[in-house]
Amino acid sequence: MTGAIIGDIIGSSYEFNNTRDYNFPLFTPRSNYTDDSVMTAAVALWLLHDPDHSHAMLERYMVRLAEVCPCPMGGYGEMFYFWLFNPAGLRGKDGYPADGKRHPYNSCGNGAAMRVSPCGWFFDSLEQTEMVAGISASITHNHPEGIKGAQATAAAIWMARNGKSKDDIREYITGKYGYDLNRTWASLNKTYGWDSTCQGTVPEAIIAFLESSDYEDAIRKAVSMGGDSDTLACITGGIAEAFYKTIPENILSSAWGKLPKGFHDTISALAQHSAYGRIFETYTPEKASSETLGRFIEAQERFHTYETALQELRNGRKESHWIWFIFPQIKGLGRSGMSEYYGIDSLDEARRYLQDPTLGSRLREATLAMLAHEGRSAVSILGVMDALKFRSSMTLFDLVSPDDIFAEALQRFFNGSRCTYTTEVIA
């Protein structure tokens, strides 16, 4: 869900100002949430509060959030706007009922797929995921293509979060939904044009994911196709989040502040009551107590993250996102939710971390992997921002255990200079 909303925010600047440049700025002064995010939050609330998955309750949440956000960036599509605010106004539009009640209007538009990502996280079975995704679409988009687009998107998310390979996802979506997923992003980058239908958006969004190497790459590929950029990136982002199990901290923190607090609360609630929370609970601002070290063990063992991090360190190049719980820093160094959650509160907590047989051993092993690279800078291995976090971590544990391996790391990579912020906080 978070990945879909962030995709929407990033793509929003380019919806009516398309770019083919893969290296476009991720965030601009115009970046903001659109109707994609509003309706995604509405679907999440519906799943959380209506075990019967009724149209009546989904309508209630869609209308409620539309009243809170009557004109998000880009507004609502014409037909959906009438459905939300003036259903009687559908009179004369292709013979839709004019009794003042809200009825589905046979749309095959991509709105059915853009809002469906919570369904991909909520259920244990693929069958139920697809069924409820169809219900979420049919309240408005009761055209077969509208329903199919929502179901295919939710199915891809479900498969991705459950460890299916890209080949598995491609085969299933192609076989069941008939989408052509054998085209390439390179060709779409040159030829794809505006298309707001499910059949002209969902397969392209899935292709962007299938050809990606990480979350950011997926979003860049989706947006740089052109077309309905925010919805393409919203669909792609939802699948990519589920597959890669991480979103870069700089992207997460940049997008988070653009959302109304109510959206934060909805994401947090979904995290606590669904499969979403078992993987992405650390993204929410309402963090669990930091008094236990269990949060570090959980993060390191989730999807073999520690093994992945250690291998990247040994290879001399950090490629994924684990710095907060592999080299913990003093709380307050960063402002993102991840930094806060995994921040070390005090010297006492740092001491307990180092004394823990698993965490202490892994910290020393990871530090040794850094030290193995003679003549390399911390920046060349970790990147600029994470090199600063590594310096903070080494400073923190050097204060706990002087004349240890951490002092050697500070000397090797930073000429013995400690992180000033860390020493000031500890003092």
Outline the structure in words.
The protein is 61% helix and 0% strand. By secondary structure, the protein is mostly helical. Residues 281-291 have low confidence and may be disordered. It has 2 domains: 2-279, ADP-ribosylation/Crystallin J1 (ADP-ribosylglycohydrolase fold, Orthogonal Bundle), CATH 1.10.4080; 292-426, Protein of unknown function DUF1810 (Serine Threonine Protein Phosphatase 5, Tetratricopeptide repeat).
Largest sheet: none
What is the domain total for the residues? Answer: 2
CA(first)-CA(last) distance:
40 Å
CATH class of the largest domain: Mainly Alpha
Order of helices and strands: HHHHHHHHHHHHHHHHHHHHHHHHHH
Number of strands: 0
- Find the structural class using helix and strand composition: mainly alpha
- Radius of gyration, in Å, reads 23 Å
Q: Give the full name of the CATH homologous superfamily of the largest domain.
A: ADP-ribosylation/Crystallin J1
Fraction of residues in helices? 55-70%
Q: Low-confidence parts lasting 5 or more residues at pLDDT below 50? A: 281-291
Look at the structure and give the mean pLDDT: 89
User: DSSP strand (E) fraction?
Assistant: under 5%
CATH architecture assignment of the largest domain: Orthogonal Bundle
CATH structural fold name of the largest domain: ADP-ribosylglycohydrolase fold
Shape: elongated
Count of DSSP H/I helices? 26
